[in-house]
Amino acid sequence: MSARGFVFFLITGIIWGTPYFFIALAIESFSTPSIVWIRVTIGALVLLPIALARGALRPALKAWPFVLGFAVIEMVGPWALITEAERSVSSSLAGLLITTVPFIAAFLIGLLGDRSAWHPLTVLGLVLGFSGVVALVGIDAFSGRIAVLPVVMLLGAATGYAIAPIIADRKLHDVPTLGVITLSMMMVSAVYAIPAWLNLPSEIAATPPTDSLVAVLYLGVVASALGFIFFFELIKEVGPGRSTLIVYVNVVVAILLGVLFLNEPLTPGFLVGFPLVVLGSFLASQRRGVYVKKRDRLKEPTGEIGLPTLNG
User: Fold this and answer.
1) Cα atoms found within 13 Å of the Cα of residue 183, Cβ hemisphere only
2) Which candidate, 62, 96, 256, 272, has a CA 20 to 30 Å from the CA of 172?
3) Tell me: the pLDDT tens digits for 104-146?
4) Are 97 and 278 in contact (CB under 8 A)?
5) Which of 11-20, 118-127, 294-303 ranks highest by mean pLDDT?
6) How many whole angstroms separate alpha carbon 132 and alpha carbon 143?
7) Phi, psi (rounded to 5 degrees) for 164
8) Contact call for residues 89 and 146 (beta carbons, < 8 A)
9) Residue 276: its H or E element
10) Angle at 281 between CA 66 and CA 123, to 5 degrees
């Protein structure tokens, strides 16, 4: 990874490790549609003047079907699922389950024809990561610490996060990052406008506390607008597969904020599942060549002088 890629990796990882904490603050006063609508609308308002000034919006409009697909898979679904799930589970658990993104991405890339995704170490990573999720959910679910439905919602969000970078890399690679992000947020804002305004007036009339207001502002300006700018640059620098490795930084930030400021416990399932998920995701997301079995390697001609040939 280049120095430029590492900087984008670190910044994006830290920024996107914080939303779980701020969502936990926001849900105390706002509904899920309101939170999603506020963050994408603020993000769009911040970015729109810049996108227009730089001429970045027109190319994005020309690619609008792919931008819409990206917006739905990256924001419309996952942001609602994560926000709603955090009403039942801790921000630390939410951050941990999103670390399944790399091994989901590795599996999907393999299905799309990349044979290197079926390298034995990659497959081992997929098995370990899945085992970690099973251990996490099983131990804590049987002990009554978590419900299964929020976990399924978070895994659904992780799947969206795994698919969206592939779309961005294959279909939006040459479209200005700023235009894609701005148009995506405008689209998501339109989707959530009516559901949000069915709840938002009464929520504002209830005078939400300062921490909830700061939380939704942060989610819009930093976690959405700035976070996506850095993330798209990261995808262009290191590719869609390796870009998902930011989840390792995400989960550390999410756990630290949850434990230190929200007094969230580290459950038995969390302690067992965490290392398996992280190790599995790490192994599954490494870039490798196509695996060739040892016996097949021995059969391949090398062209070196002195080796026998069919012509004798």
Assistant:
1) 24
2) 96
3) 877 787 777 666 656 777 778 777 877 877 776 667 666 666 7
4) no
5) 11-20
6) 17
7) -60, -45
8) yes
9) helix 268-285
10) 95
Residue 85 has which token pair? 């799930």
Residue 285 to residue 206: CA distance in whole angstroms: 46
**Least confident range of 32-41, 107-116, 218-227, 295-304:** 295-304
Residue length of the chain: 312
Q: Which two tokens stand for residue 114?
A: 């990349």
Where do we find the tokens 């990573």? 125
Residue with tokens 């995506």: 184
CA–CA separation, 271 vs 15, rounded Å?
24
Task: Tell me the pLDDT tens digit for each residue of 177-222.
Answer: 889 999 999 999 999 999 999 999 999 999 999 999 999 999 999 9
- Could you tell me what percent of the chain has a pLDDT over 70? 84
- Other C-beta atoms within 10 Å of 4: how many? 12
Query: Closest by alpha carbon to 97, among 162, 194, 23?
Result: 162
Residue 184, token pair as written in the block: 């995506």
What are the CA-CA distances from residue 202 to residues 34, 83, 189, 199, 206 (Å)?
A: 11, 19, 19, 6, 6
**pLDDT computed for residue 184 by the predictor:** 95
263, 56 contact by CB (below 8 A) = no
26 secondary structure, DSSP code: H
Burial class (CB in 10 A: 0-12, 13-18, 19+), 111: exposed
